[in-house]
Amino acid sequence: MANISPLAGHKLPAADLADIPALLSAYYDRKPDPAIATQRVAFGTSGHRGSPLHTSFNENHILAICEAIARYRKAEGIDGPLFLGIDSHAVSAPAQRSALEVLAAHGISVHIDQADGYTPTPVISHAILTYNKGRTTGLADGIVVTPSHNPPIDGGFKYNPSHGGPADTAITKAIQDMANGFLADGLKDVKRLSYEEAIKQPCITKYDFVTPYVADLESVIDMAAIRDAKVRIGIDPLGGAAVDYWQRIVDHYGLNATIVSNEVDPQFGFMTADWDGQIRMDCSSPYAMARLINLGSEFNVAFANDTDADRHGIVAQPDGLLNPNHYLAVAISYLYQNRPQWSKDLGIGKTLVSSSLIDRVAAELGRKLVEVPVGLKWFVPGLMDGSLGFGGEESAGATFLRRDGTVWTTDKDGLILSLLAAEITAKTGKNPSQHYHEISARLGTPYYQRIDAAATPDQKAKLSKLSPEQYPGDTLAGEAITAKLTKAPGNGAAIGGLKVTTQDGWFAARPSGTEDVYKIYAESFKGPEHLKEIQEEAQAVISKVLSA
């Protein structure tokens, strides 16, 4: 079981905060050795992530990745604009500079924020889809420089092709392999200008990302209902990319909202530490969300976003911070009953580590459930072709269609999931927490927990190759096993781990795609003791696999 740090939920001493000058120096000075696995380009669940201090996210990585993206675009005939956004992590701006040096050398039309500000992940997806609507040629794509909620010393770099969502594994493998080839050859085939030259190129354009996204929100959320009900809203951007968006949204729609902090700090010293004593902008963690939880009673509903605003954390009484799974169930139940223009055939997308309460909500609604591996990329085809109305995952990331049933974003959108909590409160007179308790009274109370524990790359590799045979026996916590899954039932794709299910419980084990940890997800509808039994049996099997 993971040990909770005594620092969890508290601000760190100044001496324990990230050394930003050292971090920035390491970005430029350290050169990755492609012979060392941990220093190669590696696209996980959502892009390449690492830290300059570990020589896993450095200037050479970005130069190589951008050369690969430039060549991929040319090979695929993608010749429209590339929308490039960054978050507020310390190394995001340097990585953007490196990217521009390569992209400008290739003459690629790149749109960057007109105020040199931050751009949320969903805004890049929205910009791509809006630009490409009705087009068959000259299509746009995008890059987001973000490690999401990861600690301040981390950097991240992800590519969204012309469908607007995260690149699939075929694309990321092609880019990853090319990039590692460039690293191995000392970057000799990488085209590059100096930054001073690059930024002056006519192909680099300053672009207003904020206005079109903010103005279009009423097509996906009933903003008038939120305004007219005068819902008291609390908002915490957690010092991330949405920091300049929320005030524009509040002003544009006349919302009764308070932004509790606009502070941006590359050390994220205002944050309270997560479960392991590290700063992590995880808006689904009660430790990281301590500030907003403490203020929660001042508002009808409050919410926060992670650093690139693709995740949401909802605070409402009586629960305080809602478990992400509980809110997903509420959001799905509400949307499919309050979007009259949506097709009656729209399915519900969930990742296989999300709560089985969603399965029960789908059955209650009479809707098809589509269960896929972890990662929003698996929902992209369904969102694009209109077969899915909603796609969400347990880590507080989701998106859904516009009110007219057309695609909004194909990447996670923490802003609309936050605003949906306000719409639910405005239109029903009950906040999401109250709705959850009504749903669980009808369908059963889930007891769900995710355990994170440290794992080496070798251990993560072992976990990703788990097989049904490695879980012996035919019972789990006293119940007959109904399935042992290594492939997702919704699309047959490998899950990179193992899920074992019974009638009233399940567990899934898989390595993280972004950090050196592994995760055991477990749920019971019988109670906390049954959940503990499931976890202990799962932990015993995983420990045996890791020690083998």
UniProtKB/TrEMBL annotation:
Keywords: Isomerase, Magnesium, Metal-binding, Phosphoprotein. CDD domains: PGM_like3. Its cofactor is Mg(2+). Belongs to the phosphohexose mutase family. The gene is celB. Residues 493-538 form the Alpha-D-phosphohexomutase C-terminal domain. Its EC number is 5.4.2.2. GO terms for biological process: carbohydrate metabolic process; purine ribonucleoside salvage. Pfam families: PGM_PMM_I (PF02878), PGM_PMM_II (PF02879), PGM_PMM_III (PF02880), PGM_PMM_IV (PF00408). SUPFAM superfamilies: Phosphoglucomutase, C-terminal domain (SSF55957), Phosphoglucomutase, first 3 domains (SSF53738). This is Phosphoglucomutase. Residues 41-179, 212-318, 323-439 form the Alpha-D-phosphohexomutase alpha/beta/alpha domain. GO terms for molecular function: magnesium ion binding; phosphoglucomutase activity; phosphopentomutase activity. NCBIfam families: pgm (TIGR01132).
